[in-house]
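Might I ask for a little of your time on a matter of protein folding? The record follows directly beneath this note:
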Amino acid sequence: MRVRTVLGDVDPAELGVCDAHDHLFLRTPRLPGQELDDPARAAAHLRTFADLGGRTIAHWTPYGLGRRERDLADLSAATGVHIIAATGLHQAVHYDPGVLARIRPGLAALFHRELTDGPAGMIKVAGGFHRLDEHARHTMTAAAEASGATGAPIGVHLEDGTAALDVLDLLCGSLGVPPDRVILSHLDRSPDPWIHRRAAEAGAYLCFEGPSRAHHATDWHLFDSLAALTEAGHTDRVLMGGDTTTPDAPGIPHLLRVLRPRVEAQLGRDAATAIFETNPARAFAIQR
């Protein structure tokens, strides 16, 4: 097995401490005036992350949203931090309709090409609020095809943490994606322990992020959710990321400066090692 980074394939054991969901660059009409588009700022965050012991970041910015592939390679080389880039598509609302019409017929081929010839080591797709619309189903179908051909993991944006089981029914049920190829994100935004357990029992990875103004009211539930999964024996399914989406967010270093010490204090060192090191090495490995 291997993990595909922007500088080439590495052994999963080399990932070290991982931020499993973040953004160095992001540009979307949904966040006007709040673009992440500054390489110097990204480099500063990566250096601080590395100083705190971080070794790898999964960069979930997909196709067409300003991921700046060439800058990612330069940043990784300059800072020594591994970067896993994403192909895939976000919700339709993040794109010009003309762009979607142009790429829609060959979506699976686009994902496959970026996973084999381009910079990507994962696929990012997105559901809607408590439902999967036609765009989500089409995009996930293309993602399943590309993942099946390459062994790459599929990261799923869950809108406000909802529709997790619908995603698993589609990807793992109808489309035959192995559950351990699926990473469900934003589950902290819908802290439903029954849903979390069902998703973990199915074999998917559960990624928790924070903090963010968009879901600040549920931040205090984060460690309740982590503790519940740990007590249920599902620590091996948990990942954590910072999910920096705007310039005024706490930034990538917050994950290791604030959240990891609290994980270790409340759940123990073994749980922290699993969540930040052991689990990401499995979740992001290309199983081919």
User: Anything to note?
Assistant: The first strand starts at residue 3 and ends at 5.
